[in-house]
Design brief:
The protein has 16 helices and 8 strands. Strands 3-4-6-5 form a 4-stranded antiparallel beta sheet. A hairpin with a 6-residue loop joins strand 3 and strand 4. Helix 3 packs parallel to helix 5 and helix 4 runs antiparallel to helix 5.
Length: 393
Amino acid sequence: EIFANFPDYNFTPPALGDLMRAGKIDSAIAAWIKLIDTQTRAAEYLLERYPVDFFMTVYTASDWGGHNLWRFLEDGGDSSGDSGSLLSIYTALDSSIGKLLEHAGEETQIYVISDHGMGAHTGASYHLAAWLEKRGFMVRRKNRQSLLAAARRAAQKMLPAPLKDRIKKRIGDERLKQIQASDKDAFHASIDWRKTAAYAEPGRHVININLAGRNFAGVVQASDYESYCRGVIDELGSWVDSNGTNVVERVVRRTEVYEGPFVGRASDLYVYWNPTARLGPPPDEVKARGFWWSGDHRPYGVLICKGPGIRRGFAACRPVVYDLVPTILYLAGLSVPPNLDGKVLEEILTNDFRHNNPLRFEATSVDLRSEAGLLSESDEEKIEEKLRALGYL
């Protein structure tokens, strides 16, 4: 129904990666603003036709803008008329939120949230793979880039988007997926796994141990796993930029940030970058992609709440994104499962609401350890396509 009424509805603008590789920033911004409007009209369409108890919509334009347009802020200008304006993205989002608020009554609970903040990219994640090489944790073969890959990058820059779309249709979906994944495959193929103890892709903030019995060509024995983790962490602590600033703020193991039955699927080490460090331009193999991020995530984002029971003009003390679920449940008059990671943000609530609505905890009947709710292969492919267009893959 949505696609029938809004055929341009999508997660990301079409040919976004091609626009970025071609340096057509203004065209990419215009495509995002057009998509924001389409997404908003689709949301209004649903709100007007279907009564709901809970409604949620997600805009990803601000995330893309923060990652790709932050460099214009660093250059000292970003008025609404500037090329590469991040402000124009936020202006469009602000207007859309205003339109959606017109559909909310006085008794409606409203939450405007971002799942993270944004700031200048330190460049460190792009140099992480090279750092691992330099320290001897990862070994790569010298012949890393093929002529075929170079030709493909040249075609991506030179061919117009309509022609590339026709080529994609002729190639076929399955072959296209293979081509899209080839850069990542080429990176992993460049690694000499027999000599590699720890590895990371350029642009990532995670490091994996090449563990025997788990990884296909693992060389680190289980008995040495902890010592290798400690070794990588200790070495990262001594990494400094050209100004002598520590590049890494801290490193944590996966068991420190995750819990539950799927921890084994997480990476071994997670690197938190020092936001004041600067590593300069990315390596050539990252530049070969055609574009790279100038902005990166920060821990604290946006939370704006409005509605019955919520205090006016109050600033919450560093809430985290997983506090929203228990808070929304509580304000909706529902019990809160005791095993949730977050907590109810009681400090943002009025005294009257808390007095008249005692907080109730009740175990959920949903089996959180079941894999029944896992995504289908088709859904995973759609998410992968979205992440690739945004630059995450």
